[in-house]
Amino acid sequence: MVHKATAPRRRAAAVLVTLAVLPGGAVAQVQVPSSTVTPGVFERYADQVVKIEVVETSSSAKVSVGTGFFVTDDGAVVTNYHVISDFIHDPDRHRIELVDPTGPRTPLEVRAVDVVHDLAVLASRLKPAAHFDLAPISVAQGERLYSLGHPNDLGLSIVEGTYNGHLQHTLYPKIHFTGSINPGMSGGPTISEDGRVIGVNVATSGNQVSFLVPVDRAAALVRAATAPGYEPPDSTLELIGRQIMAYQAEYLDGMFDDSVRTVELGPFRAVTQPAPFFRCWGDSYREPELPYESVTHSCSTDDWLYIASDQWSGMVTVTHQLLTTESLSALRFHSLYSDVFGEDNTPYGAEEHVTRWTCGTRTVRNETSPLRAVLCVRRYRKFEGLYDAVLKVAVLGKRDTGLVSTLSLSGVSRENIDLLSRRYLERIAWR
């Protein structure tokens, strides 16, 4: 259930160990392959890591495989929300099982979920001989770590890697782990040599670029799920809807207000990097045989929420495309400009999760510019009050220059769609 990635060959890392004391008291050190450490880590902690399967009830066939790990002496297990999302969305058709290759399958129950951090706490009837403690920990960049999980359902495996700090362009912390986390390892622990949990495996970009949820987020969810008097929610989907609503309220707060940064594109000025956790890129397209030039500038968040296998939320993107010409007539440039503005930029969505897009087009004017704007909106079927929206704008009034600007929002309230659309239109201007 993690993003599919390649697993390039790893170069053997090394650790420093004391070999002998030389004359004069000097200590000789040699580099020893880390394989001398890794087997010991695996032997000590493998029995605290489990395989999790979501099974389709009528066929008894598995639909997803992931990893979890024991965190209490009464059998509580931490994993990723996305590992069990099929069960969350359709519990009548699915069940969750802990799979022990040497023993019977054990049913698991959902105790708590945190969709923002992609975490879940499950309850089992097992009494593990040992479990991981989720204590705060300080780690130095470059420290050797060990990730455990079930890659591609091939059996419990261990992957060596290094800690490379928290990602900079995220609203909530994520750990950059330089190691090959593969599909099926989602929800497993990444630990230090002495068994301290650093984070929970969550995703990878391939080429040994992987990501962990920091241990403090898992610890907070476990504390809540195991507190005296705690009861799981009657509807996990309703809880997830409230979590998404709270998340969008936080990350959209103040977006596109008067303090927003702007970028100059030809004779236009538009918004860029709406918040510190956005990253922006630019490019240009100039070919001698084409009678026009195109310059693009785009910004997007690295944060997103996994809702289901075909539904993602919590993403915001801003894209500007500047078109200019020195050879097209006004009529031909208008035709080109209209074609670009008319391109469909609305993303796909499964009918199970979202309604069809409804769009409205009108001509508006801000303080400096006449604009042609189309706003398309669709509603989330399972989460009341949440929508996706795409606002597309073309600046009018020039015969040889134009700007098409697009704002895409996912998993937001209707109030924020209206507020951000208005602010966005106000920030597009002639220079």
The appropriate CATH architecture of the largest domain is Beta Barrel
Question: Helices and strands: which structural class?
Answer: alpha+beta
Topology-level CATH name of the largest domain: Thrombin, subunit H
User: Which band does the percent of strand residues land in?
Assistant: 35-45%
Give a count of the beta strands, DSSP E runs of length 2 or more. 27
Counting DSSP H or I runs of 4 or more residues, the number of helices is 6
Radius of gyration, whole Å = 26 Å
Keyword list:
431 residues; seven-stranded antiparallel β-sheet; 2 domains; Protein Transport Mog1p, Chain A; 27 strands; 41% strand; 6 helices; alpha+beta; Thrombin, subunit H; disordered N terminus
Description:
Strand 6 (94-99) and strand 7 form a beta hairpin. The longest helix has 16 residues, at 236-251. This protein has 431 residues and is of the alpha+beta class. It is elongated, with a radius of gyration of 26 Å. The chain is built from six helices and 27 strands. The chain has two domains: 1-232, Thrombin, subunit H, CATH 2.40.10.120; 244-430, Protein Transport Mog1p, Chain A (3-Layer(aba) Sandwich), CATH 3.40.1000.
